[in-house]
Amino acid sequence: MKILLITQNFYPEIGSGANRLKNLYIQLSKKHDVEVLTTNPSYPNAKMYDEEKYWSTEQINDSKDIMRLKMRMDKQSKSMAFRLLYYFELAYKVRVYVKKYQYLYDAVYVTTPNIFLPWAAFFQKREKGVQRILEVRDLWPDSVRDVEKMNIDLFFPILKFMEKMLYKQSDKIVINNEGFRKYIIRMIKNKPVLFLPNAFTENETGFEEAPEDFRVIYTGNIGFAQSYEKLQEMAHKLEENKINFKIIGYGMNAHLFQSYIEYNDFEYVTFEEEKTREECLIEIRKSNIQLSILKDSDVFLNVLPGKVIDGIASGVPVVTNLGGYTSELINEYDVGYAKEKATAGELAEAILKIKGSRELEAKLKNNARQLLKSHFLWEENIEKLNSFIFDKEFRR
């Protein structure tokens, strides 16, 4: 089978989205002819990809299957108008490519949260025999409305209609969070939906003994969806309790948070700029707690962030304010602490409880390793996707 993957973010970019599509490409390529339509790496900034350390996967570096569209507009522009122009430019180029070449493929697989890409790929004449697979990694436009400084109330009804039409135009839908299933089924019934979480390859897995010098770590984006204020509160709580807290961050508010740490002259709280995925995993494994915080919004609190999977797959207990599927997962399998809309005080109390009991920490770590094996290995999960797309029982 020949598959076209369409994604805005792709290797060597950092972030769970780019890493997910990288692994989808590698795993699907074991059985199928897979091509990727994407852009040049630029998130969180293009200059960092001049460093060779980000280009660590020779299989992709040497591949002729990666088609990178050349863009005139800047995705990382601070102007919202210019960023929208970037999205429109990218959507136009994707539309032109799909219209011209979709007949070459058995399946076109498009991923959100950039909603312009599936609109461009699917809102046009369908080539007979080509399956349309939509991957939903964010509930758009609801998530946009919950982001500060982006008032879309005037256009919201239209966007919701377009969202429903997008689900209707898709043959099958893949979700990275089980909590999205009910939402989608309410909008459009009788549509095949597969839960395919972010995961680790067997080569990526690795575990370390819990370090004696207790440390909490936060890795990843500090942007619109993340609770910047609660992250500040956590810094003060952990500083007061003399607990080492390391942040490896990037994104809209990363440098602001770094300045905040320096201004307060914290002794136990440190900040480092973005690292490669491999470097971050090493740091996570050398920590006792993986912290994940999002804004107190129903949209954000019901996602399954990559950093939660990173903690579980590294055998490190996760502490979070998330609800929904993530909370159920963490609490059911006893791999940390999760409470929807938990306060900074509650999160700090959970961390102190784990710090005060090596026996409890050891149990949580062992449970995390078992959960990795049962839920979050790409080699196991990719077979579900293969069956979902290509088995006769799933065909329309």
3D architecture notes:
It holds the Pfam family Glycos_transf_1. Keywords: Transferase. Residues 209-370 form the Glycosyl transferase family domain. InterPro entries: Glyco_trans_1 (IPR001296), Glycosyltransferase_grp1 (IPR050194). The chain is 42% helix and 16% strand. It is built from 15 helices and 13 strands. The protein has helices at residues 16-28, 58-61, 80-101, 116-122, 142-145, 156-169, 180-187, 228-240, 254-264, 277-285, 306-313, 324-332, 344-355, 358-375, 378-390, and strands at residues 2-6, 33-39, 66-69, 107-111, 131-136, 172-175, 193-195, 215-221, 244-250, 269-272, 289-292, 318-320, 336-338. The strands form two sheets. It has a seven-stranded parallel sheet, with helices on both faces. A six-stranded parallel sheet has the order 10-9-8-11-12-13, sandwiched between helices.
List the helices and strands and how they pair.
Blueprint: E1 2-6, H1 16-28, E2 33-39, H2 58-61, E3 66-69, H3 80-101, E4 107-111, H4 116-122, E5 131-136, H5 142-145, H6 156-169, E6 172-175, H7 180-187, E7 193-195, E8 215-221, H8 228-240, E9 244-250, H9 254-264, E10 269-272, H10 277-285, E11 289-292, H11 306-313, E12 318-320, H12 324-332, E13 336-338, H13 344-355, H14 358-375, H15 378-390
Parallel strand pairs: 1-2, 1-4, 2-3, 4-5, 5-6, 6-7, 8-9, 8-11, 9-10, 11-12, 12-13
Helix pairs in contact: 1-15, 3-4, 8-13, 11-14
